Amino acid sequence: MHSPRIFLSPPHLSGQEQANLAEVLASNWVAPAGPQLDQLEKALAARLLMKHAAAVSSGTAALHLALRHLNLAPGDEVICSTLTFCASANPIVYEGATPVFIDSDRSTWNMDPNLLEEELRACASRHKLPRAIVVVDIFGQSADLDAINAIAAKYAIPVIEDAAEALGATYKGRPAGSAAWASIVSFNGNKIITAGGGGAIVSNDEQLIERSRFFATQARDPAPHYEHSSVGYNYRMSNVLAAIGLAQLDVLDDRVASRRRNFEFYQQHLGELPGVSFMPEARYGMCNRWLTVMQVDPSQFGATHEAIRLRLEQQNIESRPVWKPLHLQPVFSHCRCRGGHIAESLFASGLCLPSGSALTECELTKVCEIVESVQSNQELASCAA
Q1: Which of 10, 24, 189, 294 lies deepest, with the highest CB count within 10 Å?
Q2: pLDDT on residue 142
């Protein structure tokens, strides 16, 4: 019989959630709106040093609302990181536009500003600039937003920071998610903190947030009856989820510290193995290490990252390959990509290890021992041959 499953990134409750939920139930504020929702929006905006926030049903919905505000049309293009989950690009398609993907910088794994500048220069020469840039903070590390903003400003293109994976990280002493026209956060169950779902759009642009709330509540016009002059969405976050999110936001710093301790443990115990390396930390900030990601060079290690994943799975331990670049996904095969080789190489060699903030030292040790056993078995097989 297997021991209890070790998940990749499960929820980690603080203990305050039950008290917050009891308050919600006692007040009967279980509908979409309510005081906890207002509190969460204010607390989140303050945390990111921004003026406004609108809490919605998911990070994907938040990104969709930011793009909706730009009134995209078929034929429009939107720049997007290629090394990310499909949710970073799907809302571009929702609005009828086409994604254009940009490769990663090897030193940060985030969007390469140099390739972005090359692409925008080429777009300008064709007299067809993209309508927006969606830059993703990958695996808890902020992209180089100052460089990206400076390039975007030359062409007056708004920047949307998809910080869904990076809440609690920093960029040049500022919170990740604080450096763009609009920032997106996620409270999905696998994120560093969770509300059991949900997300938010955060910005200093008051009109963006007001319009986002309008479209998130079915675009209902001011009237005593139901009047609609625009098509809206049922995207507003529940007050119940907001109560959970408030409790989680209070322990965000503790969760970041735990995730970083996981990374340090893995690095200490696996970093000297031949062919093993880890996602680097950018010099300009602190990664929240939402997921600890290692790369495996099979020519040195003696086995692939997939062999490690399968061995872990045999022991009821969840791990996952790095995001498959979006330009390689069948659904986006028609889309242009600037570069791509870096993201492809990271996908070919990268493995996300269990990274939950409640992992015990015993569980971390077990993961490391299994990884080491794969390498040791390959060495024995090589010697026997």
Answers
A1: 294
A2: 98
Retrieve residue 58's tokens.
């998911």
Q: Are strands 182-186 and 320-321 parallel, antiparallel or unpaired?
A: unpaired
pLDDT band at 385 (very low <50, low <70, confident <90, very high): very low
Question: What is the strand order of the sheet 292-296 is part of?
Answer: 276-278, 292-296, 350-353, 320-321
Helix (H) or strand (E) holding 114: helix 113-125
Structure tokens at 241: 């989820």
**Structural domains of the chain, with CATH:** 17-251 (3.40.640.10), 253-384 (3.90.1150.10)
* Among 89, 109, 114, 112, residue whose Cα is nearest residue 99: 89
321: number of Cβ within 10 Å: 16
CA Rg value for the chain: 22
pLDDT 10s digits, 61-83: 999 999 999 999 999 999 999 99
* Distance set, CA 32 to CA 58, 80, 201, 220, 230 (Å): 14, 31, 16, 15, 20
> Residue 1's pLDDT band (boundaries 50, 70, 90)?
low
**Structure-token pair, residue 99:** 């994604």
Task: Measure the CA–CA gap between 59 and 184, rounded to whole angstroms.
Answer: 6
- Give per-residue pLDDT as tens, 224-249: 999 999 999 999 999 999 999 999 99
**What one-character DSSP code corresponds to residue 57?**
S
Q: How far apart are CA 331 and CA 338, in angstroms?
A: 17
Cα 111 from Cα 99, distance rounded (Å): 14
Residues 6+ apart with CB under 8 A from 368: 265, 266, 269, 270
